[in-house]
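Following up on my earlier thread - several people asked me to post the actual chain instead of describing it. Fair enough. Here it is, all 110 residues.
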Amino acid sequence: MNHNASAILLISRTDNLVAQLQQAEIARTRSIILSMLAGSILGWAIGVGQLITIGSWDLFYWAWMPLIPFYSALGWALFGMIMGGSGVFSNSKSIEHIGTEKNYLKTDAA
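Reply from S.P.:
Thanks for posting it. Predicted structure:
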């Protein structure tokens, strides 16, 4: 194999690796957003459930009562962000494993 073909093959592999890294980053971002959305919905439902379960009329006259579901949603959204960062809703490989495949580490010197 001549040197020009080897250089073109190396550039092609590098472009493929960059494309895989970009797709993995997009999948991880999508996973974080979906996890935050699911966590905030779950947290809001838990906050409303807490208000219904407590059922004290004194609590309903309290000016800060609507913040209970809001802060519960915020807490669960943060938990969802942590879980989403691990790739719960992602189907792609992790970024750390993309460049370690054998075909990227081989050099065509023959």
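The chain has one domain: 3-105. That should answer part of your original question.
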